[in-house]
Amino acid sequence: MRSTLVALGGAAIVAGLLAGCLSPNAEASTGPIPLNCNRACLEDVVNQYLAALAAHDPKRLPLSADVKYTENDQVIQLGDGFWKTVQGPGNYKHIFADPEAGQVVFMGTMHEADKPLLMSLRLRIQLGRITEIESIYFRQGGGGPANIAELDKPGYKPEDMWFKTLPAAQRLSRPEMISIADAYFSGLEKNDGKGVNGTGTYPFTNDCDRIENGSHTTNVPRSPNEPKDAINGFAMDCMSQFKLGYYFVVQSIHDRRYPLVDAERGVVWAHVVFDQGTVKSGILSDGRPYTFSFFNSPSSILVTEAFLIENGKIRRVEMIGPAAFYHLTSAWGGISGH
Question: Which structural domains are found in the chain, ordered by start?
Fold first, then answer.
């Protein structure tokens, strides 16, 4: 009898400790998230977050007591920053889910000061509570090509191929998918046209296309008056850009992380930091010299990037990334050794 009471008492203590770990730092209006949170459940968590954000009220969320919140890699108090200035969700919404890791990502438009901006949002769910909130914001004019207004048009949505469910036999393992995404960054870092690690190849399909901050940076039609031999990187496809060594300006890609892998849909979501601006002139792989008219000072880009992978190759890339301080060190660290 005594052993039974001791066991029950111990269970009560464990339950109490667990409840203390899970209790949010503010009273949540919703209960804990289901422990077995599938894709639909994770997407619902994003919708809860967007609703709470629009209401300027983080108390609506099922939060861990020690939830970590960042805006553009700066750790701040949840409820501060964008929580005070946001008007509400925009028209573009793209959600990636990783039930195995308890991770979900939103990439889309939000409204602030009567203008659209881009938000890349990662939520981590553990034991029924949100424990990590990583938010990246890009506002028009925040560096590089951008067309937020295009993404925010009513009815604009990602291509259907992003939502295709892969047969189980065609799905790659988590390490395989991360390796492919990492090869993109390794091929881009000090891009010399020689392939990933000198292999002569890059992991792209023939129809690979990329959107950065709402603007196409591949396969853009040339102007009718443009000379055919003019070097126009954005008119090329992914493979041609990399093989030409067009991105030699990117000197380092560090703090690489791959927290979300959606094997069911063949998607990897990555977070990295680009360092550039110290080199603006170089020799392309075809021997032609090339000088960019910008990259005149050291800078970095805080990059969040989604890769759609088919048959071991990257077919689509979607990026949200604002300019950042040179050599920015991510508050979330990195796993690649860079």
Answer: 25-151 (3.10.450.50), 164-324 (3.10.450.50)
